[in-house]
């Protein structure tokens, strides 16, 4: 009972923090902006987050995380709008919603689909938040016994899992992680103070700024790539009206169980490092199709086919915060940026966060609930406006993105050199894009790199240089065994790979040839 | 489709080159130390070797399988986007926020050249106001809209 009463106190504290005027304001701003960028093809939550990162320098840490998180889960709401109306996923995790959402729109049921996915998103997110509330304190209690060896093993597992499951060619993904770790080492060595790989540029002594890495690789590279590619969408306005939004009784009946199953899948995969919304939504869809009495309805506008994945990806968005906030280990790139935003404010994410900064932890958690409530309220009446936004041509948008990049980066240190670093990284990012080298694992490696080195050195110092320490301690031994199992699989898959698609990408091509590849990151 | 997976071949080779140079640089410039007391060079040197090995792993099988064509780089977009950021970096201190925003806008629209001179001007004015409102007014970041240099130059006209 002690656990439950403590939880109630914490939730009250969190609600108190989340309901403060400034946090409410940034939460509202975040979810509104998130929905906006989610709807827009060509600008995803990653670009938006990297654009907002410099602004967070000027905010309090709780406000910053509340806002960034709002953009993140808000974009999943918006992403399904683009999926349903345009057959073009606004964010990767809403790709599977195209399969049945777009056929529903073609049948004139777009409003029902938009309404029901909003409900599904809210339900999934609520379950995700509940899971996070109940399990985070338990994980923290467990994690307090972690030593440097466990942290290193945990990070290694997270990085290897993230790079091999979530992207295309697995070996290449791990390579990108290593490049990211190396990029993270640029600057003064934490222990000896020796500058490494700075080549005499004083601006690099503090390392390559996270803002510059994120904005260069995602913002600028994305703009260069999308300038000639992204076309505005055309939407049939007739099928979107408030009156047409009312779902039938049959819709409700069919939606109930997919909602619950989707939320279950989402909560589970979201909390695992390296998986998350994309995999959860595909799994939820595949399972619904498999257990359905009439699988032939899928792909032709079955409501189960949009409810399960939307519930799953929103639940996953919330539970993804569990490893980030309790262990300090980001499960995906967005979480890596969150971690970066926290570190910028001098807050070390990890098991101590909950005890040292209870207002931040529980305040952010409760703000998720408020944010999702806001999304539920603003999404339904605003659907008509989002539809009009879809028609903004990209050539009006990208100069604005570049302006935000330039001013944002400059304002952090008042340093023109930082703007030039962004330009160089943007060029590198564009080259990587042409070679299909994914920037997402690179950023994960970049954020975790210095932490990994620190823990590795510390573990070696304690164990007097005995590498076997990683395998002898029980928790770290299990984690390392898992890591090596994945590496073994990667090597095997690497040599048997015939087509360049693996994992999620293979599911995509197998199940939805009609969907054009999303330009959004 | 090409007969070989050139995307992965080039990526792999780049990884080998980067890994080797990182390792050699670390070995030549930073103390390695011992495994117990690691110097600043140990971790990067080891990672460089690891990256080179991964690069081989990426490139080798790619020789024996078909792959997609490498997309043609859009040099025009690449050039004008780069130029707009460079101009911003060069002018933000010298001329001030508004001229720098105008330069970013007017240069970057050339990347796809769909907005005419009128459209670009409208966008430049709109973004100047938005940028100034968001960063100077709302966030309170000290950015001068126009610098002293600009005023002196106006005086000379």
Q: Layout of helices and strands, plus pairs?
A:
The complex is a heterodimer of chains A (about 525) and B (about 160).
Chain A: H1 2-18, H2 21-39, H3 45-56, H4 61-86, H5 97-106, H6 110-143, H7 148-165, H8 170-185, E1 187-188, E2 195-196, H9 210-226, H10 249-271, H11 277-291, H12 304-319, H13 321-327, H14 333-344, H15 353-356, H16 358-389, H17 394-413, H18 416-434, H19 439-462, H20 469-472, H21 474-496, H22 503-511
Antiparallel strand pairs in A: 1-2
Chain B: H1 6-29, H2 42-62, H3 75-91, H4 97-108, H5 117-138, H6 148-156
Short account of what is shown:
The complex is a heterodimer of chains A (521) and B (157). Chain A contains 22 helices and two strands. Chain A has 521 residues and is mainly alpha-helical.
Descriptive account of the structure:
The complex is a heterodimer of chains A (521) and B (157). In chain A, 72% of the residues lie in helices and 1% in strands. In chain A, helix 6 (110-143) runs parallel beside helix 13 (321-327) and helix 10 runs parallel beside helix 12. The two termini of chain A are 44 Å apart. Chain A has a two-stranded antiparallel ribbon with strand order 1-2. Chain A has helices at residues 2-18, 21-39, 45-56, 61-86, 97-106, 110-143, 148-165, 170-185, 210-226, 249-271, 277-291, 304-319, 321-327, 333-344, 353-356, 358-389, 394-413, 416-434, 439-462, 469-472, 474-496, 503-511; strands spanning 187-188, 195-196. Chain B has 157 residues and is mainly α. Chain B has 6 helices and no strands. In chain B, helix 1 (6-29) packs antiparallel against helix 2, helix 3 (75-91) runs antiparallel to helix 4 and helix 4 runs antiparallel to helix 5. The chains are: A mainly alpha (521), B mainly alpha (157). At the A-B interface, helix 8, helix 9, helix 17, helix 18 and helix 19 of A face helix 1, helix 2, helix 3, helix 4 and helix 5 of B.
